[in-house]
Specification:
Elements (H helix, E strand, L loop, with lengths): L2 H13 L10 H17 L8 H8 L8 H13 L3 H8 L1 H21 L3 H29 L5 H29 L4 H4 L2 H14 L12 H20 L9 H23 L7 H4 L2 H30 L5 H25 L5 H19 L9 H27 L6 H39 L15 H5 L1 H37 L11 H6 L3
């Protein structure tokens, strides 16, 4: 069968409310794709809490152990732009099966690593495989479901995308405390192996497309993304632009991005078709996925740390505090699946951002002496907002994208969401560190003879010996706690302002009602 014939068939199938690819057991295949997506997304964050244990087990220094995280992220970012080309060139079934098998195998090797060099290499391999799993799982769900089921499929996939990264640090902490750090990787095996067998049995394949690779474009975009990711990962550690390394990485990223844009506009065989970015629906989703990465991945990454260090909750209690957030996402995604049939997608996304921004604003009023109820309520409300954003934006993005361009579109949207998360995490950590230092200085300046009832703080140790020293240490610990809390609140306040300012921009897009798009044959 020729490529043109295949294209006509898939387009006809889509317009007739039939899936582009038929499968014998759609439900089982969907479950298998979800299982793979869960372990892939968990591994973005699950290893974070196990780093101190890895450091002692692998004999690594505090600085070098961070490459366990950096290697995974950079390898994935570098490969993601070529995912669609590899899928078209070698066949989607073959590529996805090899990616899943490689991910499971590399997970096992990470758990068995005996040195830092081995761990970094295996984590990079895991990151390469994860780069294929993310966008291809989304493409598979679009392909095996008829257009009328796309919103439901994206709601299911979106729940995993939104909740799995939140659960990673909690599950990682539990496994590390209960077993050992190696189980943050071994946990992938009992999920990955059965899902791989189901995929071998049920996964259909797109036809192979003899598509040429834009080598220069790929080199340029990969260089830009790797330089940007290195800058974001190492910026705070190196004090940002006080370091020449960060300055050079920024210059390389900007230069490579600019050259990639110019090259794409003038080459006959671009890595990504410019028509994707001429599509206002897709372009809007592309931009808003970055904001969603900041609002979801970045905020969710710091919350468990805040709950444990500031409020003193255990890892298990922290996990329980995150549950309402996931419940909110679950409920609003189910609602969005219905509401998209009757309301403009722009209005749903606007409401979602306003709700998420309002929850962040409320979080900026947290107090050290409060109970868990405000945490539970704001988490649930924020989940409601985020769920109203994700599914409508994905459906709007792909509603006017051709079947053939879905792999490219999925790769770009996943890449943008991950970059948003990386940017948000770097920004939050930097602001948290600097605001904490500033607040510590301000608070410490108020510990004077006047505030202590005429007692000189400097004389406590000499007058009361060990008891005086212990008292000073307690005061210092409380100052640190107060300063860290202020740092978190400042972050929430800034993020709330950013999200609320971005929200109205969605109204600049064209009206997007899903039922109208389908009626128009799109």
């Amino acid at each position: 069968m020729s490529v043109s014939t295949s294209t006509t068939d898939t387009a006809t199938a889509a317009s007739a409310d039939k899936p582009a690819l038929e499968t014998r057991h759609r439900g089982l295949l969907t479950a298998a794709v979800m299982g793979v997506s869960i372990i892939q997304l968990l591994d973005m964050t699950i290893a974070n809490v196990a780093l101190p244990h890895m450091r002692s087990g692998l004999g690594a220094s505090p600085d070098s152990i961070t490459w366990v995280l950096t290697s995974f992220i950079i390898a994935g970012v570098m490969v993601t732009p070529a995912v669609a080309w590899v899928s078209d060139r070698l066949g989607s079934r073959r590529v996805f099966l090899w990616a899943v098998a490689g991910f499971v195998l590399s997970s096992m090797l990470c758990g068995a690593a005996t040195s830092l060099a081995q761990m970094v290499f295996f984590r990079a391999l895991q990151g390469v495989c994860a780069a294929f799993i993310g966008p291809m799982s989304q493409t598979i769900l679009f392909d095996i479901n008829p257009p009328s089921k796309h919103s439901a499929a994206m709601a299911i996939w979106g729940m995993v995308v939104m909740i799995a990264p939140i659960s990673g640090p909690i599950l990682g902490g539990y496994l590390t405390d209960s077993l050992n750090w190696r189980w943050v990787f071994y946990i992938n095996l009992p999920i990955g192996i059965p899902t791989l067998l189901l995929l071998v049995w049920l996964l259909p394949s797109r036809n192979i497309v003899p598509r040429k690779l834009d080598h220069l474009g790929f080199i340029l975009i990969a260089t830009a993304l790797v330089s940007l990711q290195l800058m974001l990962d190492r910026g705070q550690h190196l004090d940002w632009f006080a370091s020449w390394e960060i300055i050079v990485e920024l210059l390389i990223a900007l230069s490579a991005f600019w050259m990639f844009i110019v090259h794409t506009l003038h080459t006959k065989n671009p890595l990504f078709q410019p028509s994707l970015f001429a599509n206002p629906n897709f372009l809007g989703a592309f931009a808003f996925m970055f904001v969603l990465g900041v609002a979801n991945v970045a905020i969710a990454s710091i919350l468990p740390t805040m709950y444990q260090t500031v409020y003193g909750y255990s890892p298990v209690d922290t996990g329980l505090l995150m549950i309402p957030r996931g419940c909110g996402v679950f409920i609003s995604m189910l609602l969005a699946n219905r509401l998209m049939q009757y309301f403009d997608v722009r209005h749903l996304v606007l409401v979602g951002y306003l709700i998420a921004g309002g929850a962040l604003w409320s979080m900026s009023g947290f107090a050290l002496d409060m109970g868990s109820e405000p945490i539970l309520v704001t988490g649930f409300i924020q989940g409601l907002g985020l769920g109203l954003i994700f599914t409508p934006m994905n459906i709007a993005a792909f509603a006017t994208v051709s079947v053939e361009q879905r792999p490219d579109g999925a790769s770009l949207l996943n890449l943008m969401r991950n970059l948003g998360g990386s940017f948000g995490i770097s920004l939050i950590i930097t602001l948290l560190s600097r605001n904490t230092q500033t607040s510590h200085s301000d608070l410490a300046a108020h510990i004077t003879t006047n505030t202590l009832g005429g007692m000189d703080p400097a004389a406590l140790s000499g007058r009361f010996g060990d008891a005086g020293t212990a008292a000073l240490q307690m005061v210092e610990a409380e100052i640190n706690r107060q300063a860290v809390m202020i740092g978190y609140l400042d972050n929430f306040h800034l993020m709330a302002i950013g999200v609320l300012c971005v929200a109205p921009v969605v109204l600049l897009l064209k009206p997007m009602r899903i039922s109208d798009m389908r009626a128009a044959g799109r």
